[in-house]
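Take our chain:
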Amino acid sequence: MSTPDKLSSLIDQVEQKLDSNSYHNSSGLDLRKENLKTLEFLYNKLEISKKHDNFETVFEYKAMNLSGIGLKKEDFAEIRKGKYIQIISISYQFNEKGKRIAKNSSLGYFGKSDNLEPELKRDIIEFVLRWRYEKAFQHTEHYELLLQKLDKKIL
């Protein structure tokens, strides 16, 4: 095989690899679909629907956090003794002066950390992580659309 043929073959292999890792491939879409399915299940199981009655709009929050349980690499899943466990949603509002301010709302209160059952702890952590994962999908989708729009504007 000549050098140009080898290069052409390598380019084809790279393109196939890129296509198979694309956000739009079926496994990526299946992953997202499965994440949403599990997330909605947890949304109902944790009774978040009592505080936020529409699953579809739960992604309008800008961020989601936990109080009482660590989510950082250094303290992941560690309970903070004596603290209250809550799922906190973060949104932004404008005050009377037009300044943007963060508003924290509790989507779920689960009592003191000392009494938290392991299965409930896992479900709470999983809900927040899966919510963040879906937000990452949404951000990726947003930037892909912008890049497509850029290609159309420039070319």
Summary: The mean pLDDT is 87. The chain has one domain: 29-154.
